[in-house]
Amino acid sequence: MKKLLITNTVLMLVLLLASCAKDLTPQESIAKAREYIAAGDYASANILLKNTAQNDPKNAEARFELAAIALALGDGLSAEKEARRAIDLGMPPEQVTLLLIKALYLQGEFDKLLAESEKLPVKLDPLVTADILAYRAHAQIQKQQYRLADATIEEALKQNENSVIAILAKASYEAQVGRRETAMELAARAVEIDPASSDAWAMMGDLQSANGDLAAARESYDKAIANRRYVSLAQARRGFIAAQLEDYPAARSDVQQLYAAGYKDQPYVNFVKGYIAFRQAQYPEATEALESSVERDPNNPLSKLYLAASYMKEGKLEQARRIANQLYYEIPNSVDVARLVASINVERQDFGAARAALAALLEVQKDDAVALGMLGSMALMEGRGDEAVDYFQRLSSQSPDDLTIQRMLRLAMTMRGDFVGEMGAAAEQTVAPEDFNEVLLAAGVALKEGQLKEAVAISENLQQQYPDRVEPLTMLAAIYLSVGDWRRGKLLLEQALAKSRWNPPR
């Protein structure tokens, strides 16, 4: 019922405006439409202008105003079509060129934009020239033509030093060449000149996000979106920030609005959707969205990185390995990629490949904590005590108060045999539950080094204190079997097997 009421209301408005348009001359209709535009009533202006264009097909002004409305509502394609019609109907190019350039920029048609702005009309106002050149510079930056963009920006600023679009182009250029502080100062200046500029606030958000100031970036994106009359990719960027801040309902809301507005196949939107799902451990959903993102933009390393990680979480290790290896060769010095490659190979139990990736990572970042931790853990799993001690000592020097690292270091030292004598001397003392595995490991190390008396003493102490645990019996069986006492070893092994069958799974 509510939907029907809205439909009927819109229909009545259309009929009313159409009726009014019959009583107005084309110029009066355009003037009335401009009043609607000034009041922010684009729907009424659009209806009035379309009626005018239908009644007066050769009216260039009506086409121009329709182009301006389409541009304000984010419909770059319609804006381009109407702008070209206005020129074809005789409107001087100097009045239409900037609008056409904006329409092409909104569509991401950078090659067409550069072609259209190659030769400008002679009678252009300097302020208009500055903005056209600024959009041209933005297109050059998008095409990574940085030297050309820098020259174009300087020319634009000579025409109008307060052109917000030119200042933003300069900020974008400075950010691309690594001068973020200068870029931030320029973005702040653009906001100061025009506090209602959606583009200026979006640029500010991009720079704050790059600097890791997520809360400030979110506020800037809020202002960018509030000052724009249509759904844009600024909402995807805000959604990405919200997900990093763990505000998942807000992040998903932004993505849903983008989907509803026709961005369902946009690569970055699907990356953000996949990232949100990944952060919430919803890996099938993450994989689906990230696959869509990579399919449409196969050169985006971030989408591929998270897709590989999502595959790994789902246990699809071969798919994960394939994408991770692609990334590894494309950006060999990336810390994140090296970590991912290593993690996947650890999951595949290919420790050699994992160590190779981590060794390369340590060449780039010699004290990378993740790499040192992974290498130390692998050394423990493979029984290489000396290596494990080295890695965990390097970690410990970085984080001397981290109890987990200290415990891993002690475990590595136990494996190396540092505490066998100490453990043997304390074989009759109480072993706390949290020390059980470490003490058991000491018994294994003692056995390996031929210290059978210590190995037996430690294992028997554990067996007496933890009669329900099967590991001490297994260790004792291994000790007696290793010295040829088959009868006692067999008896202990049978006891261990019987106990393991009886004990419920943990």
Can you describe this structure?
By secondary structure, this protein is mostly helical. The protein has 29 helices and no strands. Helix 9 (146-159) packs antiparallel against helix 10 (164-176) and helix 14 runs parallel beside helix 16. Residues 1-19 and 501-506 have low confidence and may be disordered.
Q: Specify Rg, calculated over alpha carbons.
A: 34 Å
Structural category is mainly alpha
Give the oligomeric state: single chain
Number of DSSP E strands: 0
**Amino-to-carboxy terminus distance:** 58 Å
Helix run count: 29
Strand content: under 5%
What's the helical proportion of residues? Answer: over 70%
> On the 0-100 scale, what is the average pLDDT?
84
Q: Could you list the spans in which at least 5 consecutive residues all have pLDDT below 50?
A: 1-19, 501-506
- Describe the largest sheet: none
- The outline comes out as elongated
* Helix/strand order: HHHHHHHHHHHHHHHHHHHHHHHHHHHHH
